[in-house]
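Hi there. Long-time user, first ticket. I'm pasting a complex I've been working with (about 414 residues overall). I'd like to know whether the download I got is complete or cut off, because the file seemed smaller than I expected. Thanks.
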Amino acid sequence: MSVMERTREFGVLRAIAPAGRVVAQVFGESFWIATISGFLGLGAGLLLTWYGSHHALMDIGGTNGALEYGGTVLRSAVKTRFSLGTALQAAGLVYLMALVVALYPAWKVARCRRPAPCTRARKEHTAWP
Amino acid sequence: MRTILKVAWRSIWRNRRRTLISMSAVGLGLVLVIFYGGLLGGALGDAKEQLDNVGIGHVEITAPGWRTHRAATESLADPEALLARLALPARSEVGWRVVAAASSRAHGRARASSCRASTGRGKSDSRRTSGRCGRPASRRRRRSRHPDRREARGTAQGQAGRQAARDGATGGRRAWGRALPRPRHLPLALAGDLGAPGPGQRVLGAPAPGHRRRGPSDRDPARPCRRGGRRGDAAASGARARLRRALLRRPAAAAQDHGAARRQIVWMVAFFVYGLVAWVSSTRC
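Hi, the file is complete. Here it is re-exported in full:
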């Protein structure tokens, strides 16, 4: 989205700078977005999981969070498990994916050999060229 | 590299709304991944913990040849000395597993003896099959006339099963349908030698204090039982009272479920509105 709508801008950049420089800027933007949202999402996810591990998020109908079946007391309250390792693993995966999906717009910018097709105003105001 | 990152940082904030939408999409996805990972981990941990508490346990100690032969005669020689040597922590719980049903023939006898206790007597229902065993009552009665099986049915089997249940071992549950020609040769004596658990201890898999587990070992062979369970028994009336209480609590649980469903609908609508706003904003940037 942040590249397809900026064909004119990247066309001008391609005219005055080498392709590697433009591609690096696209990756730099993805890096900042992925880093900031990754940290925010990691913090919010850890907070939510920690809250769910201390408070029952859902109770499937037992009394005082317990359900007796066949003489055995089962837990009826659904809680989450707070695991920093699992959360970091998920954050790393999402961070990696956010960087990987930047390959396509970077490739789109890099394959624009001449600035003229990229600077056409026809595609400026549409979401997808 | 530093210049590129600096330019990129300034570039993403040239269009603040688009950047915030992109960042919120990534961040919300990450929050959901972490939260559902924790929810799944909590559910699996609960299931594992409950399985351990019900009877599997964290550690199982068996006789050396038990895993190969699965013979009921292969039992631990001196389990108390073994436990003393292990020096378990103070809060650990130990349960004895008493193994029964050593052969398929014994299992067949067990079915015959237990079915006799669960089916009514008389010629009118001789062809009626019990829901538990699925075999005509007349055939069961004919099979159980053998001297060995006659010894197996009735008091010997019932007493052995009840003894194991009183001892609080899981064998109380497993020994109910077994024919016991000579009960003293079976490892049931193991549970009897160990005695009852001490104060504050609980045996894994044992019924809770005051709880009476229903099963053929509880049934009196001399008492004809009707289809659908016993009537008039104190334990059965207690179970019915518990069932009635559970049914009376049902409206509250149903109201709770409605609340959870309402919350889920609100969340779905919120996500839909979020997606709609993001899509409209992205098309108008």
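A couple of notes from our side: Chain A is about 60% helix and 10% strand. The beta strands of chain A are 58-59, 66-69, 72-75, 77-78.
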